[in-house]
Amino acid sequence: MRIIVLFNLKPGVTAADYEQWAHDSDLPTVRALPSIAGFDVYRSTGLLGGGDPPYAYIEIIDVADMDRFQADVATPEMQAIAAEFGKIADATFVTTEAL
Questions:
Q1: How far is CA 6 from CA 35, 61, 93, in A?
Q2: CA-to-CA distance for 98 and 42, rounded, in angstroms?
Q3: pTM for this model (two decimals)
Q4: In Å, how far are 2, 5, 19, 42, 88 from 95, measured between CA atoms?
Q5: pLDDT value of residue 67
Q6: Three-state SS annotation for 31-66
Q7: The CATH number of 2-96 is which of 3.10.180.10, 3.50.30.40, 3.30.70.100, 3.40.50.12280?
Q8: Order of strands, edge to edge, in the sheet holding 2-9?
Q9: How far, in Å, are 6, 49, 60 from residue 27 at the CA level?
């Protein structure tokens, strides 16, 4: 399963602060979870054809084992990461499946 997270930073949170936190905490912690096959964060740069994107950042989370993922995100370490993320960003989490 792939989870796509679309988000903007909350007022008062700078891109530099978020990106430092992502590199130092979020990316290494999530990538180390046994249930994760891949995890990347992208900065939006625009819309194809022009214009401003509706979201500043996009996360792509590839989950290898959803049951294990649910257990992984329930750990105190991941609960702390999730709480920090909630203070930083307003996010929409979209679950997907390949056609």
A1: 21, 11, 7
A2: 21
A3: 0.93
A4: 6, 9, 24, 17, 21
A5: 96
A6: HCCCCEEEEEEEECCCCCCCCCCCCCEEEEEEECCH
A7: 3.30.70.100
A8: 36-43, 57-63, 2-9, 89-96
A9: 16, 30, 11
Element (H, E) at 4: strand 2-9
pLDDT digits (tens, 9 = 90+) for 11-44: 999 999 999 999 999 999 999 999 999 999 999 9
Q: Structural domain boundaries of the chain?
A: 2-96
